[in-house]
Amino acid sequence: MFVPALFISILLRAFSAQAKVVTSFDECKGFFFKDTEPEGMDQNAKKICQMLESDSYSYATLYSVHHRIPLYSAYVFDPDCSSTAGRAENWHVEPQISQPESQTDHMIYERDSDENMIKRYQAVSSDYTNSGYDRGLLNPNSFHCEESRNATFTLTNVAPMDAGFDRLNWKNWESALGSFLRSKLDTDGGSAAVYIVSGTVPGDHVQIPLRGTSEDPERVTVPSHFWTAVCYKHHINDTKSFSFGYVGENQLEGGIRLMTVSELDDQLRELLKTPQAVRIFVDDCFDDSNKINEIQGVFDQLINLPVNQGDQSATDEQSMSRTLKRVVRSSQNPYLTVDKYFCRLDHPCGRYGEDYYWCWTGYGIFDSWDYCSPPLSGTRGTNGQYCKSNYACGTYGSGYNWCYTSDGSEEMCCTSDDCYSAVNDQRCWDNHRCGYHGYSYLWCYTDANANWDYCCKNCIFTAPLKGAYMFNFSIHGRSNPSIPSTAAIVKNGGRVVVAHGYQDQYVVNSSNGVVLILEVGDVVYQQTDGGLSEKEISQQISKENRRQNPPQTDSLRDEASPDSQQYCHLSFSDIHTALRELTATVTEQKANIRALET
């Protein structure tokens, strides 16, 4: 038994349990080397002394409500715990992050919380669903026992980690670190304490959920890097004390590099773009570059991977990750199946003569295979929900298009996210866009002969009550600035509001609000003229431009005009049913937009 480690555990359990979200780490300072928190981090981030109900503090976290991810978690390594801990299905959230006045001073089960309240300032599990990112634990569950292990499964201790990086690189380093520390503590007779801080570098470009996969996209920042710093403090002989750190780029082919703590401090200052110095441990905790070579040699053996090279590997799976030299972040990975098996390196996802996407996943005599998601984004089911990003609309061997939608249901689906897309690659009739049209399901006529089929996006608003309703819409344009683009609000088949815009670049041109007086059953939708069709738009906008300026996923179809190089790209905002004064107004937002009520 490691007596000093047991003493630390008892000491931490003796802390008073007052508030979970705190103004100072004084209540849980024992998780930091010399009771001192890291310097140079975001001063506006929330400090959390992590604890379960009726339990002692388990670790400390600095949490960014702006990015909805932790900046770091600080904890003490427990050598008596199993290194083969499993994952938990019971995730927790912190009520006081989103509701400071809450009297609940401990984490609670996410399933027992009010998601709409919680998601105001922190991530929820649905943000990660089918995003291509794992809930990457900063404080690993495998470094703790019992209640402290359960306490690691909170959304305030995780950040979006690339699935390949997590499973092929980071988890190997995490396992190697645990093995190294257990061996070292055993050699020293348990006469040491290990303080660890694991953190993130918030990225600048990617947030989840990705656009086209959720009704509430881009809430959680994806870190550009993950890092860990280790302080091994011997209780008796400081010559046996040491420290080190490592940092890895959060992408499929990202490498991980071992370094001294002082080097990690400098690199974090550069990555975080902060003017003040970053210092993780007081006095860098016995920082010694001469000991790094010894530690690196041990990690080389434990991981069986050159630690300074992100483009070399020792296993087939790691070879696969290095083969994908450039991965464009999208809803599908060309080497990952719907059941999250890796395709063979020589057989990525494709049709291969079938009407569905698939790949070989096994080697040898008994080859196995699995379905892949089609390379589509923003597809919808007939319930109006987006298809899961790893289960985009496709046949999957069934002979008709279907998908699992974001709410988990199996639905027929549409391969395009517009108002004229029907199931099985059909198109709605030009004069009859997708909507409920008085029924409980989405449908449209597919021709002038009253043939119909199911569709996937409600583009018709039908007034449920008599009153005043606010509608918002905007014009997007590009190309010839001398040719106007026209947007119209249509009520019961007749135009009631017209807006003209002149554009010379692909940006939002204007935002116009209009209040309409509607009777029960009145139908409202929007109409555009003077623009290119959505197909022509997609052909003309380069992939890079679409990445920088993604078109609105809820835009309605534009009518083509052969003599115009301008296009409109319009969208309705949320429809507000304001049962107030029965007045109609038109608001003109910019001088180059004329909003006329006819």
TrEMBL record:
Entry annotated with the keyword Signal: yes
Highest taxon of the lineage: Eukaryota
Position of the signal peptide: 1-19
Sequence ranges assigned to domain C1q in this UniProt record: 427-544
Residue stretches making up the ENPP1-3/EXOG-like endonuclease/phosphodiesterase domain: 56-270
Domain named DNA/RNA non-specific endonuclease/pyrophosphatase/phosphodiesterase: residues: 55-267
Biased composition regions of type Basic and acidic residues, renumbered to the chain: 538-547
GO molecular function: hydrolase activity; metal ion binding; nucleic acid binding
Alphabetical list of Gene3D superfamilies matching this protein: 2.60.120.40, Extracellular Endonuclease, subunit A
Alphabetized UniProt keyword annotations: Signal
Record SMART domains: C1Q, Endonuclease_NS, NUC
Region spans: Disordered: 538-563
Matching InterPro entries: C1q_dom, DNA/RNA_non-sp_Endonuclease_sf, Endo_G_ENPP1-like_dom, ENDOD1, ENPP1-3/EXOG-like_nuc-like, His-Me_finger_sf, Tumour_necrosis_fac-like_dom
UniProt xrefs under PANTHER family: ENDONUCLEASE DOMAIN-CONTAINING 1 PROTEIN ENDOD1 (PTHR21472), ENDONUCLEASE DOMAIN-CONTAINING 1 PROTEIN-LIKE-RELATED (PTHR21472:SF21)
Protein's UniProt name: Uncharacterized protein
